[in-house]
Fold:
Amino acid sequence: MNGMAAGTKKRQNGAPRSKPGRFLPLLLGVLLLLPSLPVRGQEVPQRPLGAMAELPATLRADPGADSFLVRESKLDSVLFLHNSEAVHSSSLVLYLMTAVLAVEQLPPDSRITISQTAYEAHEDSTLLKAGQRYPLPYLLRALLLEGEPTAVRALAEQLALTRERFVELLGARARLLGMAATNFYLESDIPAAVGSEAPSPILRARTSGADLSRLMNAVLDNSKLTGLLHLRDETWFDSSGANRYFRNRLSFVWNYIDGVDGGIYLRSDTRCELVVLLTSRVKNFSYFIHLRTDLPSTIAAAESANERRLVSSLSRIIRAVEATFELSTLARRGETYRENVPYIGEPVNLHFLRTVSYVHPIDDAAILESRLVLPEPPPPLPIYSRDSIGEVRFTLSDGSVLAVAVGTDRDIHARNNQIDSLLAILDNNRDLVSLIILLLAVLAILVLDRLIRLLIRLIYRLRLKQVDSVRERMAEELVRDALASEQASRRRVFVPERMPRQARRRLERYRQRAGERENGVAGEARMADEARVADEARMADEVRMADEARMADEARMADEARMADEARMADEARVADEARVAVEVLDKQSELPEERAEHETGAVQNQIVDDKRCEERGAGKP
Structure:
């Protein structure tokens, strides 16, 4: 049942269904953090059902109602009660429980058809008609504002198809709310006459004032239902153009009592039951009153007298609440609870994370004890000052326990004292932190500038590649166009003499464009030929100049070889002449005496040496 309600709430909010593995890391993180989070209500004892103060003498003497219960809305404190444990028949608990199930399990845009069976149960219905389809908000207004019984049967058929199954749903939801004295059952209608058809069972409920107050807590936790209870009257505009005026049956209370925020009022036969939501303008706290009483079974003209009786009872109860109770602050957000508390090896100061107030009798504001509860093991690091690390449980004089979350006065990033001290220094020196942030910003700007430059360079290279590819493609297109124009020029185009003017103009434009394209291609081809001829001429000049240089080198080398040959031949001739002269001299000397011959031979040799030296000096040798 609870899972069904949770699934319906998700569908109402319109959240898309996610894939199973998308939120797996988040789920694992939550599971890791669960042992460290304080679980409210595990060790806190259940609040006993008992009033904070005794009834004043005026209410004890004349209660004005068979039973009533006054409960503070936010902190669930019972202020007054009278005969609230008595079990009695109640239509109010059936209507409220049906509204809770409808909001939890039906989509907000659902439309519900009123069956003939639901309509025949109360044929005097003026709000609902058999066979008509109504949106869920319309039925909820008819249920809570006007007390329409047909709406109960229609919603029961929509929720459970059968009334037996709907009774089981009501009982299961009541058990979840801890309504032990509440029972839902089916009761057969009394036949209209003898021999009529079998009676159809109708829904009944029995409850106590204490259980109804628990149900009211669930109703007040639902913003949609609370918004309906706050309505005094409203005009409903349907999409079909029809409109309906809804008037809360509790409207007569607004006319006589100040501070009323809303509520619901039901009357059946001689019994009436109502819940009134109020806000104390002076005491500044909210509460609700559940009141049940039996009205005189007289004619309908006594209705105004019955209403005055209800207003009188409510007025006396409200005055008693205003005179008996007040609102005090239990804990203020940011206020230090305890100093130098050892936590994960370090002394910290604990402070409250929220402001909590409580209602108590004016002469009894005592707090019996306060106990600090810290989870084991501690939550994982880092721990920030805004995070809850535990709770303080205050026990009030009436036995109730209120829990207030507490946190540390500073952030705990690590168990290393040096790191914590460094972080504390940074926390205290805002100028240093600003300087570090500025340097990091400058570094980030430099890195970003470098990345932008690299990106620009990459884009430039890509554009160059694109330009090259475009050039190659244009060259290929020019070649194809040249070939096509050459082939087209070879073909003769015959134009008939009698051609429509439009076709002739089109042919002329085509010829003009073809001529322009041919001229352009021819010009480009001519320029390409001129460039090619210029390159060939330049290359021929370079080859000619290289040949001339080579021929000049060969001629120079031939001249040098010829001059060397001539010099060698001259040397050989000179040596031959010298040898001949020497032979002649020797012949002459052989005729002279020996001494003279030797003298002349030495002189000749000396002369030959001198001549040779002179020749060598004349040739440039040292």
